[in-house]
Amino acid sequence: MSLIKAAITGVHAWAPDYILTNKELETLIDTNDEWITERTGIKERRILKGEGLGTSDMGVMAVNGLLKKKNLQPSDIDCLLVATTTPDMQFPATATIICDKVGIKNALSYDINAACSGFIFTLVTAAKFIETGMYKRVIVYGGDKMSSIMDYKDRATCIIFGDGGGAVLLEASTDENGIIDAILRTDGAGREFLHQKAGGSVKPASHATVDAGEHYVYQEGKTVFKFAVTNMADVSAEIMERNHLTADDIAYLVPHQANKRIIDATANRMGVGADKVMLNIQKYGNTTNGTIPLCLHEWESRLKKGDNIILAAFGGGFSWGSILIKWAYDTK
Ligand code: UT7
């Protein structure tokens, strides 16, 4: 166990202004507000409109906001990692693009793609740079422009996803608070149920793949739902057990926002009441890598130093996991 602990010492999030409501979706596909609300908990999601704007542009808003909040200069940042499934381009890494746009020079920066678990996987990766003493300040941005890979004719997927994300700053903890424990898992056999069929090396983009809509998200929702409920609840309960925590010890569950029913099942399994669950799926839908930092940003002022919070996610791969954090600061 490392002697240095990594702690989140700041958070900032950003989502685009345009609100795509369930009512507007009713005009695009055969659906209705009641079905979407009941089956997912989502009322609206944000969409990044505008030619030439991508994930990096949302990242720039979040990272600049974070630097300002923490009174830091771009030159203070040693490393910036990006968790995304919708990079600006296949390469180079969106992290390098954000650094360039923000003015972070000569820092280590790269992307990690672990679908909806990307933010928690990347947070743990970033923490290791702090714990080993290699870097002093690391930023993790998690965010996605899911609208860029959405088929707005497919009512089973387009109702769920939205655009947005957030960034956290990691520094060495000065006390016992910080990232305490993590359980991170994958099972590649799950890929058949949630993936993007074309645009990668197996099936490069072509006129035929675009005509067939194979650049959009493909999801077998029912199967993904089943695995998500079991696995996200299991790891969340497991991390409590192995750290000898009961529901009373938990200040907040910070779940990936994919479907309110998955979140409810996880909270039930942990024995945690709704008042301790960060939930903003109704406003943003599933922003993939953006959901957890968007929650942390919204709840930041309510978090207290020493609070036990559990981050939990499930997504494509399959990938899933949970992280136990002792929150490191009070917001002034
Ligand atoms: O974030 C990463 C991982 N992703 C997830 O965790 C998502 C997991 N899956 C889900 O959240 C849910 O499976 C969905 C929200 C995607 C779908 O909900 P469901 O309750 O599993 O619905 P279903 O796919 O079983 O469909 C039930 C019915 C079907 O009609 P029939 O065949 O029973 O007549 C669908 O055609 O609901 C129909 N349906 C809709 N009806 C109105 C599917 N989508 C819609 C819609 N509006 N948007």
Outline of the structure:
The chain is α/β, with parallel strands linked by helices.
Describe the 3D structure:
Helices cover 31% and strands 25% of the residues. The protein is an alpha/beta fold. It folds into two domains: 172 residues, Peroxisomal Thiolase, Chain A, domain 1, CATH 3.40.47.10; 148 residues, 3-Layer(aba) Sandwich (Peroxisomal Thiolase, Chain A, domain 1), CATH 3.40.47. Strands 1-7-6-4-5 form a five-stranded mixed β-sheet, sandwiched between helices. Strand 12 and strand 13 form a beta hairpin. Helix 3 crosses helix 4. Bound molecules: oxa(dethia)-CoA. Oxa(dethia)-CoA binds next to helix 2 and helix 7.
CATH H-level homologous superfamily name of the largest domain = Thiolase/Chalcone synthase
The tally of domains stands at: 2
Poorly predicted residue ranges: none
β-strand number: 13
Arithmetic mean of pLDDT: 97
Instruction: Return the string of H and E elements.
Output: EEHHEHEHEHEEEEHEHEHHHEE
Q: Any idea of the CATH topology of the largest domain?
A: Peroxisomal Thiolase, Chain A, domain 1
Strand adjacency order, main sheet: 1-7-6-4-5
Q: What molecules are bound to this protein?
A: oxa(dethia)-CoA
Q: How is the secondary structure organized here?
A:
Elements: E1 6-14, E2 18-21, H1 22-28, H2 33-40, E3 44-47, H3 55-69, E4 79-83, H4 94-102, E5 108-112, H5 118-131, E6 138-145, E7 163-172, E8 178-186, E9 194-196, H6 207-211, E10 217-219, H7 221-242, E11 250-255, H8 260-270, H9 281-284, H10 291-299, E12 308-315, E13 319-326
Parallel strand pairs: 4-5, 4-6, 11-12
Antiparallel strand pairs: 1-7, 2-3, 6-7, 8-13, 9-10, 12-13
The structure holds oxa(dethia)-CoA (UT7).
Residues 31, 35-36, 39-40, 116, 155-156, 159-160, 221-222, 224-225, 228, 258-259, 262, 286, 315 line the site of oxa(dethia)-CoA.
